[in-house]
Amino acid sequence: MNSSCFRCKQALVCEHPHCSVCLRDFHPSCSKLDLSYKGANTCCFSKFETISPMATQSSRQNMSKSSSRSSSPLIPTITNDDFSAQSLQDSSSIESKFGAFIANQMSFNNKLSDMINEQNKQLVADQTLFNNRLSDIIKDQNDKLTEIKNIAKSVAEQQVRIQKLEQQNVILSKNVVNLSQQNRVIVNDVHDIREGLANMTKQPSSELIISGIPAELELEPKQMNNANQNDVNNHRTKLSYIVKFKSVYVSRHVIDLKKRKGDLTASEVFDCPLTSKIYINEFLSPRMHSLHCKVKELAKIHKYKYVWVKNGNISVRKEDKSSVIVDRTDRDLRLLETS
């Protein structure tokens, strides 16, 4: 007769675990399930043996024979005290093993905790080192950014300076052009002065105009020094006379005196009481004479009131209080047309 599993009561047809203490048979899966129970059978689970169904049957027969020979059927072979003692012994063994397991687990936990602490310390150190390096990098970047800002500011200042220098260069260029024009005018004036001096040396006379002398005097230039002997109080129409000097030096003296004083009367030059003003016609070079003729024509067309020559320059004024226009070259003629 085949034996059955103590747990599921099914027949055992293959090799299966067999408890050598309580002589119970189990399926392999049922013996594992019984390990979760905390009953009286727990002490037997550590003494399983794998036997065949035939061995189980013969073992039971041998047990029954020996029990029939040695004891009465009413008295069990294993008493409750023996089973309790064995259970206590197994419980103490389990407790000692469980205590060892707990000790090992606590030791493992301590080692794991120490390892975690070491790793945390290393992580903190690495994080601190990383933060320090990051702080250094940020500081370096800020320094470079500040340097770039300073360079940009310096470049902007240099650009402003360059713009100012360009403006000054434009002004200086205009000044150079003006100075060049003035130099050309000065050169022309020097040329005209030299030409005028050459003409003065060739022609021993200069014109001197005296206005306000009575017409009935009929004075000749050579008689001008005796003008004070005649009646000068008559109020007839007054004429102007052109005086020609025989000496160039005398004419230069009179012209220089006129330039220094501005207004010059006849009594300051001649031995006479006449207060008539003296006007001097300056000799002009051919170029300035041609320019003078053009200026007078334009002044007549555009209704200018005054045109005069002073110190080699041709001056024009439209009204009594208007500004004076000085013509030195042919390019200055357009000023008469635009004013």
Task: Enumerate how many helices there are, as a single number.
Answer: 6
* Number of distinct beta strands: 8
Main sheet: strand order: 4-3-5
| Mean pLDDT reading | 71
* Strand portion: 5-15%
Briefly note the structural class of the backbone: alpha+beta
- How many whole angstroms does the radius of gyration measure? 73 Å
Total domain units: 4
Query: What is the percent of helical residues?
Result: 40-55%
N to C succession of SSEs: EHEHHEEHEHEEEH
Q: Could you give a short account of the major beta sheet?
A: 3 strands, antiparallel
Shape: rod-shaped
Low-confidence region ranges: 33-43, 66-76, 200-207, 211-217, 221-239
Amino- and carboxy-terminal Cα gap: 151 Å
Tell me briefly what this model is.
Residues 148-182 form a coiled coil. This protein has 339 residues and is α+β, with helices and mostly antiparallel strands.
Task: Chart the SSEs and their pairings.
Blueprint: E1 16-19, H1 28-34, E2 48-51, H2 53-70, H3 80-202, E3 207-214, E4 238-244, H4 248-261, E5 278-281, H5 286-301, E6 306-310, E7 313-317, E8 324-327, H6 334-338
